[in-house]
Design goal:
alpha/beta, Lyase, Ornithine Decarboxylase, Chain A, domain 1, TIM Barrel
């Protein structure tokens, strides 16, 4: 689906009229859209018969983590230990997966501390990291559930699906203090494929993970959880028989990448960067006050430029420097005079949220609250 | 100059050995290199006979702003009002240029407040923004110095050099409360040119600005300051006769972009992202814990990948996701076992600094202080 047809298929819904009491740039979130997105993903998980363990990297917000738990999530996922600490200590999250290897004595010490306050599962994909974790938890007289991360085609981290993963599972399962509770994959590569290929890529990834889990079980290891991730693939991978858990993240807000896959429209993009036109140096060029420090530089697999300006399919955010969004305009495009405001759906909402300290929460176009991005910048 | 020759020309200087009391990823800064960079740019400005007004966007640190002032800078530059407020209130900066249009009543109100605490100059490039500022400062019974931003080839913001800029200068100069104190340009496009073109592009930009200033003076307007910016162009533009001020930013730390222009080497890159290898999923692939949330996604004009790993010209940071740096390795590359640490010079240090809350300050490889990135995230 190309941009024009995607746009024509939905209402060009702006979540806030130019409320001049808000200074820009900022990220505003429509609470009704957020709640709808949370409820519908919970329903999708239920319809697939899998547990929902959303990835918190998108919102980094204890408030939104609680909304997800109240909607039925079994726990949360995060990338880094620092995010887990925030979610446990400020969000009351009691069951959390750190979908990232814990490497180094300082982090192992913090992990042991966190185990006093919550159930924590850690992803592992090397024997070295597993051995160090084993030593740490054993010395602390503790036990830790781990997920083996499996590479099903993304070629980022993870042991390769099949024999390599089985061999690593066997080696790890003999280490004291560790329990191989599950296997996981992140089929993020599906989201960057063409819309007509995403289903096949996602299903192949899910099947490779299920097959690997079964081969590990054949070695006498009780692999309980088979966990997949990624919002764009969420309509496909969790339906693969044998998958038990899904970990989508972006769905709470959605973004330009999501809506360009054609499944959702801008009306389901709950989070917008609200920005002001600060210069109009040429008829075909406007400058908005959202640059890479507000939108982040992530590309879109299907859309030119650095985000979608709601209601302006003829405008392209052609370049970003840190504080400047350089917008190229179709002839006679209106709405880009100095002082005008625009709503931008970022290509990738997760890094955009990581650039701001708070989310301005709206209902019916009015500010009802401000929520801190409490786990912003928690890269350690 | 290609990568191999740049590397061979300098010492592959690591600023810190694997200090395991520091958790990663983090940004470490070598104080000696920082001080040398600050002193040498001050000497360059003096040798050109121009004032130095460094751009604080690189460090966002009141500490480093003070170091620059102590080395002879006449004041600081920043992009956003929020950065100016931090530098004035926490750094004791008394003279500051906001090199960005101030648009909107909320910002004009804050600007008027800031004028009580410091001399502030504001860049303007449209009549609309100037008229609103004029009304604001006149109502507040104040006066404001402005710089007219001139586009000398970057094609971002700014009135075009020549007649367009002259016309705007004349129109603005009649507005009450504003005084056209100078003209400015950001010749940032020079830094993205080929190394053998940078001098010509920078000098042409400087000359266009000088010529425009002279034409404005011919209209009876006393343009005192002729201000240029950009670290890569700093060896060229300030030498153009008639330029009175330079505003480099990146030079305090330098980065992969700077060193790939061949003027400096990694030994002059004061700030490094210290990162740990967290996975080694294949012989030719390692995962480090610095992703786009630590390095930022800015491309380099001359180097493949997302930064330079000091001492490892055969390693390429091929892909970044938020928490993963995917490093492709030459055959038999050592130093990338799980738990090993690397020092990464980001392509662009400014957005990397904006992602962290503090800088770990080193001398002779030992931590001597931690400085807050106090103006981090001040996009408003």
């Amino acid at each position: 689906m190309n941009l024009a047809s995607a746009v024509s298929a939905v209402t060009e819904y702006r979540i806030i009229a130019g409320d001049q009491s808000l200074d820009t740039p900022l990220i505003a979130v429509d609470l009704d859209v957020l709640q709808r997105n949370i409820a519908e993903m919970a329903a999708l998980a239920a319809s697939c018969g899998v547990a929902l363990r959303p990835h918190a990297k998108t919102h980094k917000s204890p408030h939104i983590a609680r909304m997800q738990l109240e909607a039925g999530a079994v726990g949360l996922t995060c990338a880094k230990l620092g995010e887990a600490e925030v979610l446990v200590d400020q969000g009351g999250v009691s069951d959390i997966l750190i979908a990232y290897p814990i490497v180094g004595d300082l982090k192992i010490k913090r992990l042991l501390d966190l185990l006093d306050r919550a159930r924590v599962v850690v992803a592992i994909d090397t024997h070295q990291a597993a051995a160090a974790l084993s030593q740490g938890v054993s010395t602390g007289d503790r036990a830790l559930d781990i997920y083996l991360e499996v590479n099903t085609g993304q070629d980022r981290a993870g042991a390769r699906a099949g024999q390599e993963a089985v061999d690593l599972a066997v080696a790890i399962s003999s280490l004291p203090g560790l329990r191989l509770a599950g296997v996981m994959t992140h089929e993020g590569h599906a989201g960057f494929s063409a819309p007509d290929e995403i289903a096949t890529i996602a299903e192949n990834a899910g099947q490779a993970l299920v097959d690997t889990a079964e081969r590990i079980r054949n070695q006498g290891i009780a692999v309980t959880h088979v966990s997949v991730g990624s919002t764009p693939a969420s309509w496909f991978t969790p339906r693969v028989a044998g998958v038990t858990e899904m970990r989508p993240g972006t769905y709470v807000f959605n973004d330009n990448n999501a809506f360009h896959h054609g499944r959702i429209g801008p009306d389901r993009c709950a989070a917008r960067v609200i920005s002001t036109v600060v210069s109009r140096p040429a008829p075909d060029r406007a400058i908005v006050d959202a640059g890479s420090k507000a939108l982040a530089l992530d590309p879109s697999p299907s859309h030119p430029g650095h985000g979608y300006i709601v209601g302006h399919p003829g405008a392209t955010i052609a370049r970003l420097s840190e504080e400047h969004g350089v917008v190229t305009l179709a002839p006679n495009e209106t709405g880009f005079d100095v002082g005008d405001r625009v709503e931008i759906i970022p290509n990738h909402i997760c890094p955009a949220v990581n650039l701001t300290d708070e989310l301005v929460m709206l209902r019916d176009g009015h500010v009802v609250d401000r929520w801190p991005v409490a786990a912003r910048g928690k890269v350690r």
